[in-house]
Write a structure and sequence with these properties.
Largest sheet: 7 strands, antiparallel
Distance between the termini: 38 Å
Number of helices: 1
Function: Acts as a defensive agent. Recognizes blood group fucosylated oligosaccharides including A, B, H and Lewis B-type antigens. Does not recognize Lewis A antigen and has low affinity for monovalent haptens.
Pfam family, one: F5_F8_type_C_2
Family: Belongs to the fucolectin family.
Helix content: under 10%
GO molecular function: fucose binding; metal ion binding
CATH class of the largest domain: Mainly Beta
Order of helices and strands: EEEEEEEEEEHEEE
Strand content: 25-35%
Number of domains: 2
Structural class: mainly beta
CATH architecture of the largest domain: Sandwich
Radius of gyration: 19 Å
Keywords: Calcium, Disulfide bond, Lectin, Metal-binding
């Protein structure tokens, strides 16, 4: 299931996070417009890129979803629409990107009541990675779906299950270029870490510097303090 972030700017939680990299500082605590993987939500890798879809209905072209216009009304030439069938939409990133989250704006038209079960997939030749899945609630809202794991690829595909229509109003793809992960040095990796309280279950401070970026708590990749005020996490860079 996708992890949804309603607003474009959110607080990076101090109590539950997996620190991916530290460069010249001893700790991270900030208010930011980033997803859980540190990708800037204001950077859109698919703006004005080439988009296609399985079919087109009512002149709802695929390219409307990458024109930078979040207007949620089809009558304002801002939304796409496929015919009924096995429906999908796809955008070419133009280069290889590590996709971390996808922001989608749905339709707000009163007569549009289609509720779709969807999947977002990052395509890289024959190596495809499921980013997120869930249900579209067509209310004209803008929602960021954080990938369950980072997907490396050149294409992003949104598809609905079963026989239905796909109609959205804007798609934005966030992530990092290839060299973000492949050439960066993480000075906090495996360094001594501690936090303000004993860990919740097995979620110790060192989990945040173990080199594993998985964002689900149950995987044992994140740290978690016990309940209290003024909680903090600290890493010694040596």
């Amino acid at each position: 299931m996708a992890q949804r972030v309603g607003n474009q700017c959110s607080i990076v939680l101090f109590l539950l996070m997996s620190v991916t990299a530290v460069h010249g500082t001893r700790y991270i605590m900030t208010e930011t417009c980033e997803d859980q993987y540190g990708a800037d939500l204001n950077e859109n890798f698919v703006l004005n890129k080439q988009a296609t879809q399985s079919s087109t209905s009512n002149n709802g072209a695929a390219g409307r979803l990458v024109d930078g216009n979040r207007n949620p009304y089809f009558g304002n030439d801002s939304c796409s629409e496929t015919a009924v069938g096995s429906s999908s939409w796809e955008v070419n990133l133009g280069t290889t990107i590590y996709v971390t989250s996808v922001t989608i704006t749905t339709r707000a038209d009163d007569y549009w009541r289609e509720v779709n079960k969807f999947s977002i997939t990052v395509l890289n030749g024959g190596e495809n990675s499921l980013c997120a899945s869930g249900m579209f609630q067509h209310d004209g809202g803008t929602t960021t779906y954080v990938c369950e794991k980072v997907g490396k690829g050149t294409l992003v595909r949104i598809a609905v299950s079963g026989n239905g229509q796909l109609s959205l109003c804007e798609v934005e793809v966030h992530g990092h270029p290839m060299d973000f992960y492949e050439n960066k040095v993480n000075y906090a990796l495996s360094q001594p870490a501690k936090m303000s309280s004993p860990p919740y279950l097995v979620h110790t401070a060192s989990n945040a510097v173990d080199g594993v970026r998985h964002v689900n708590l149950d995987t044992g990749s994140c740290f978690h303090t016990t309940k209290g005020r003024g909680d903090w996490w600290f890493v010694d860079l040596g």
